[in-house]
Amino acid sequence: MEQAERSSFLYFTGQGSDKVYQVHLRQKDGGWVVDYGNGRRGGTLSTGTKTSSPVAYEAALKIYDKVVKEKTSKGYTPDQSGALYTSTDLAGRVSGELPQLPTLILEEQAERYFDDPGWGLQEKADGENRILLIEGEAVRGTNRRGLFVDIPQAWVGTATAAGRTVIAGEHVGDAFMAFDLLELHGRDLRGAPFIERFGHLRTVASAMPWIALLELELTAEGKRRRAAQLLAAHGEGYVLKALDAPFAAGRSTSSLKFKFNQSATCEVIRVNAQRSVAVGLRDDAGAMIDLGNVTVPPNEALPAVGALVEVRYLYRYAGGKFEQPVYKGQRPDMTPEDAVLSQVTRIKDRSAALDDEAA
Predict the structure, then answer these.
(1) Residues 133 and 142: beta-carbon distance below 8 Å
(2) Which helix (H) or strand (E) holds 6?
(3) Looking at the domain assignment, is residue 86 inside a domain?
(4) What is the model's pTM?
């Protein structure tokens, strides 16, 4: 039997879902492994392995064929549009790199920054935070917790850097959307003003076709126009950046985000019978506040109690639950400390809402 690497790209469309599943049979450490990635089409894939350690080719092929058969029996069909993900031995290990996290603000707070020439505006991409470390032809990715993660294979081998280059951005589908540059060819830029770092980033991005640059608007007119375009296109929102600020890891007041649609990282507190889960957030005293139930789509695995999930919502009634919650998926890149009630800023008074409806 010829021992060759294999990959299958499968997708499922229907019942309100559009999912991608990919499985790869490949060599590793003198043996063979079966790795997979799955998630929403156009979203960031969750990756894992079906083999905890390398096995003989015949054993790995049997596992590979079984996975493909199981998926096709559930309605998945072959598709070649998926991107192969790397399988790094460093996955889950601490990288030493932590992102800068923007502070959430309200729309009425954002308005004054449009007229302030000391602030710029970028699109807030709807993906997962990534920092890329490029050294020579090696490209490694980290998540918002500073842990190494697998990244699309297309990002590897197409980048070269003479000396360490570190780029901050968002992983959206198979694309990397860059918004900041921390190191350039071994030169640390973290202490430089953001506007200077962005100028270098523009040059770096132009040399790497798989990087999409999140453009920076500087004029009041440009900022307002871009915000209106993002709203009309049902975008996630925008981020306001202090142009003279250095980079600092952690929650930042020189980077502010406004989201058109509210979402929160919640903890699953109960699994219900009809493919829904109850979610909650902890208040300042550490007490769990029940924010109601959210339906889990049929193409998504039911999360267990204690799992962290992302929920999009219209608003929350004061002292009540989420209105029109939508399940967006699990958040393995977050920690229980992130599932706090202070995330919720769009709160509506129920009596005022009833008055509005009556009027």
Answers:
(1) yes
(2) strand 6-14
(3) no
(4) 0.65
